[in-house]
TrEMBL record:
The chain crosses the membrane at residues 39-59, 71-90, 96-116, 128-149, 169-195, 216-246, 258-276, 288-307. It comes from Marinobacter fuscus. It is found in: Cell membrane. InterPro entries: ABC_BtuC-like (IPR037294), ABC_transptr_permease_BtuC (IPR000522). GO terms for molecular function: transmembrane transporter activity. This is ABC transporter permease. The keyword Transmembrane helix applies. Belongs to the binding-protein-dependent transport system permease family. FecCD subfamily. Keywords: Cell membrane, Membrane, Transmembrane, Transmembrane helix, Transport. Gene3D superfamilies: ABC transporter involved in vitamin B12 uptake, BtuC. It is a multi-pass membrane protein. One of its GO terms (biological process) is siderophore-iron import into cell. GO terms for cellular component: plasma membrane.
Length: 312
């Protein structure tokens, strides 16, 4: 997928010319496109896919719900709304945008945890997703209202609604990689306790783990991952659903194996969607968020219609 991302694009530079350029031939225009346009968006797509894949797997394990996903439950929408509000208020630095995205994602995670505590809601995957969809819709509506207030900020805010990894310099990673690094340390710390919690909270306590502390660490990790991904690419929906669905099909229900497999599968899904977004409407590009929705919606329907959603 990395190679496809470097070779394929919506512009006039063909895959053959791009391959020749990568193997040493002199094509100045092609080299500029690859090095300045395709390479940065490839790296950003890899980081975004890794973050959203891990976040989805963590959310599903914590809520024991195979339909839990940052985009469906309002975590991504909360992050995007916070960024949109910050832009409207005059925020412009990448650092501030990243921090605000983390706070918005943290608020969304808090609402997810609160929803799982509602009687009868946390144990019903479909009802939880419907509640999350309602929250996401509300936040997206509020974000749209912000666009009407200030036309100057409307173009910037529109990015957070559609989602894209195009046109971003590699410098944006400088503000997000530290947060992702902290999240990865939290993932390493909670992987084994989450596997124990899959046996039930009483079993986890009997093995010496503290469910409340584990939930807090998972919440922080998800907020860091989703906030970073949103700061990089906007609110991308369904990635956190598709990636764990694929990894569980390969690795089984063990959350530790699922988390490890999310590292390559997450970037592969986002890279594949980004390549499709360049080619499906060439010479124009379709927003990445639209492509991820088109890919993820059938997966969601397949899980629901199967009628035998795996117990996490």
């Amino acid at each position: 997928m990395i190679l496809a991302s470097l070779l394929l694009g919506a512009g006039p530079i063909s895959a053959h010319v791009s391959l020749e350029t990568l193997t040493g031939s002199t094509h100045p225009d092609a080299w500029f496109v690859i090095s300045e346009l395709r390479f940065p968006r490839t790296v950003i797509a890899v980081v975004t896919g890794l973050a959203l894949g891990l976040a989805g797997a963590l959310l599903q394990s914590m809520t024991r719900n195979p339909l839990a996903e940052p985009g469906l439950l309002g975590v991504s929408a909360g992050s995007g709304f916070a960024v949109a509000l910050a832009i409207l208020l005059g925020a412009s630095t990448a650092t501030l945008t990243t921090v605000v995205a983390q706070l918005g994602a943290l608020a969304g995670c808090g609402l997810v945890i609160a929803a799982t505590r509602v009687q009868g809601l946390g144990n019903d995957p479909v009802r939880l997703v419907l509640a999350g969809a309602t929250l996401s819709g509300l936040l997206l509506a509020l974000t749209s209202m912000l666009m009407l207030i200030d036309q100057r900020a409307a173009d910037e805010i529109r990015f957070w609604i559609t989602g894209s990894v195009a046109g971003k310099p590699l410098a944006v990673l400088a503000t997000t990689l530290p947060f992702i690094g902290m999240a990865l340390m939290l993932v390493l710390a909670v992987a084994k306790p989450l596997a124990a919690m899959s046996l039930g909270e009483k079993a986890a306590v009997g093995l010496g783990h503290h469910p409340g502390r584990i939930r807090l660490m998972v919440t922080l990790a998800v907020a860091l991952l989703v906030g970073s991904a949103t700061a990089l690419a906007g609110p991308l929906i369904f990635v956190g659903l598709v990636v764990p669905f694929i990894t569980r099909a390969i690795a089984g229900p063990d959350i530790r194996r699922t988390l490890w497999l999310c590292l390559p599968v997450g970037p592969a899904v986002v890279l594949g969607a980004d390549v499709v977004s360049r080619l499906v409407a060439a010479p124009a590009e379709m927003p990445l968020g639209v492509v991820t929705a088109l890919i993820g919606a059938p997966v969601l329907l397949a899980i629901v219609r199967a009628g035998r959603m795996p117990s996490l």
